[in-house]
Amino acid sequence: MQWQDHAIILGVKRHGETSVIAEVMTRDRGRHLGLVRSGRSRAMQPVLQPGNGVEIVWRARLDEHLGEFRVEPVTLRAARLMETATAVYGVQAMGALLRLLPERDPHPHLFDALEVILDHLHNPADAGELFVRFELAVLNDLGFGLDLAECAATGARSDLAYVSPKSGRAVSRSAGAPWADKMLILPPFLGVEGNHAADFESLAAAFRLTGFFLHRHVYEPRGMEAAAARDGFVQAALKALDPALRALAGPSGVSA
Fold first, then answer.
1. For residues 220 and 232, what is the distance between their CA atoms, to the nearest angstrom?
2. The CATH fold of domain 2-76
3. Does an H or E element contain 53, and which?
4. Which domain of life does this protein belong to (predicted)?
5. Where are the domains of the chain?
6. How far lies 108's CA from each of 21, 114, 159, 204, 234, in Å?
């Protein structure tokens, strides 16, 4: 059996003396593993770095086998991804999110989003906003999508200010006012109007929002903890917007 696809390197593991098992996100076949012979050679090591875009040819006798990859470089962005903290942590954190999905389950929109984010990780403000949207997309594909389009109580589509921690649905400012202390904040840049850029406060609220639902629906039921890289990314993205930041990010978001 054989197929060819665009892919992004997520990581590698040593296999024997000279080979590696590469983990990639492909556009049409989802997250996939394959053996790369001589993957530890001087020629292949720079190619098999997380974040790099490659062309993959996979071969195996049977579909359920691990199979072998032939890898050709396309977009070698790994060196640039080492230049900022948001990029270093971001590529690791997105890889951890993709590992929550079943192997070989296609998610072409996540592949496309991953490519876009990797090219913007050097800009912390853009990276933070795009990362939050990526987390929302992963939640949706796992079956726990949030409904942020209209108020759960009134059906209104304007002045949405909160998200119910129980239902994951948006709530308008007036309808949610009596329970504001129990609600999660809906950052303006995630609202349907979408006419606000992320700032420190709204990005911190967004990280709390996605972190809360990832913990409740994904990590806690699976007996997992959020990847440490997420905390590193959150701190780096927020520190870039507020250099005086000294708070530490917790597993469900940002601490006060």
1. 20
2. OB fold (Dihydrolipoamide Acetyltransferase, E2P) (2.40.50)
3. strand 53-59
4. Bacteria
5. 2-76, 83-148+186-241+248-254
6. 22, 10, 33, 28, 25
